[in-house]
């Protein structure tokens, strides 16, 4: 055992307060202020205790585990969890377990566990996941996000029917009027596919049991009522300011419009609406 030690290998550098190196097995144990730096991709793992297996390109780190994928001051990815596992063979991926929080610029999430696939830059969240992007919040049984080139392009939110206490897929967006921030546009269904352009909402497709609530404002920002739309499948199209410009329902459409004078006569929240304020912050 070595104190305040460092171990260098072909692929990693390990620093810790205490290190044990088993050279024959190419295995090492580390404890106290552990740092594992991957030399090939700028991924840094930190935590309280770690095991590294050089032959299988596998590491696990626990106790305030943090993954940092350094890109630049804006796009650096942070993943916080109770435990982090690194699988560095192809395809390289990382599994975070327990109280998982992810931060990358305006992309924020919480979940019970998560997978980060480094090569194709995707994130998969499960166990009561919630994801925030700008003024939008997404919840469901599972959430999958694609961020090629460090730019958010697609999010898929799924309901898993056989899952105990399964949740409907939900998208909540704050209204685009500065005078009515308490009004939230809502979309729900079994599956929601969300496409982004310049990391802003561009298109939302909803599959099975689709529902939406959208508040209407005139060009000056004055409130002008609300639209409720339901149907089997739904396609919601946004302009460059993330304002709804068209809703297409391909089967069994039902629409209801309430003017501003009559808005109190209808329910303004879809069943399952839950606004979360507990966004993660950098530690």
Unreliable segments of 5+ consecutive residues: none
**What class would the helix/strand composition place it in?**
mainly beta
CATH secondary-structure class of the largest domain: Mainly Beta
- The share of residues in helices is under 10%
Shape: elongated
Total strand segments: 20
CATH architecture of the largest domain: Sandwich
Mean residue pLDDT: 90
The number of distinct helices, counting runs of at least 4 residues, comes to 0
Distance between the termini: 30 Å
Task: Name the CATH homologous superfamily of the largest domain.
Answer: Lipopolysaccharide (LPS) transport protein A like domain
* Radius of gyration, in angstroms, nearest whole number: 23 Å
The biggest sheet, with number of strands, parallel, antiparallel or mixed sense and barrel status, is:
10 strands, antiparallel, barrel
Q: Hey, roughly how much beta strand do the residues contain?
A: over 45%
How many domains is the backbone divided into?
Answer: 2
